[in-house]
Amino acid sequence: MTEEVEKVSLHVYDLSQGLAKQVSTSLLGKAIEGIWHTGIVVYGIEYYFGGGILETPVGTAPYGTPIEMIELGVTKIKKDDFVSYLKEISPRYTHETYNLLKHNCNTFSNEVAQFLVGTTIPQYILDLPNDVMNCPLAPLMLPMIQNLESQLRDNEVPQVLQLVAPLPASEGSKGEGSEVKPKKIHEPLVDPLGNARTQVQDDIAKEFAALRAQGTLSPSEAAALATRNVMQKYGFLDSTSNSNSISDSKSDSKSDSKPNSKSDSKSS
Hints:
By secondary structure, the protein is an alpha+beta fold. 40% of the residues lie in helices and 13% in strands. Helix 7 packs across helix 8 and helix 8 (219-234) crosses helix 9. Residues 237-268 are annotated as: Disordered.
């Protein structure tokens, strides 16, 4: 008699609903394909991590329609054994331990995938936090990231990112029944710079050009320093935390750019 197996798949959602791909270059200085949320589908149920380990029947996840459904393989593990496994790991997946950049839904999906089928989820999904935080303008997005983290930790479904200043709050959501996974309407993710973004980006571009003209910094170094300088100017960064490193970088770049520093001259 053939032993029964269960198909295991990964449902991938883009929390930005396509907006990240459209605006990430202007917002972050780097192309980001999406803001990924994932869930493991097995036994006719989708399991995912938000404010704890959650489950919902396939097709009823509050994040809409997955943009991709990846078959991970099959498992011979019985559902009862899987439930016991989830209880075992649950202390590591709680409201308090959720962290959008370090311990999120994709961390959970990756661990569960390895338990069920001995494989990991796609690397591009796991690499997303580093991809975002390594962008030159990433510090400007921290308020938005913190807002998103707070909503996901509370099992809320954020609306799409707004690129303008926030509008007055709308009326409360309807249907406050006792549904297992209510689809409430929550505050959108708001660009922390709002309508001032164009001016800030112009200032960063000018600062970047000035730093590059000195000929001592690589493009990435100049972009990071220009961003920090302008962020301090507009109050988005605590000047005391980075003042030393920034002043040191400036003094070093000025001294290195003197005419007699031939060996330090770099081609752009």
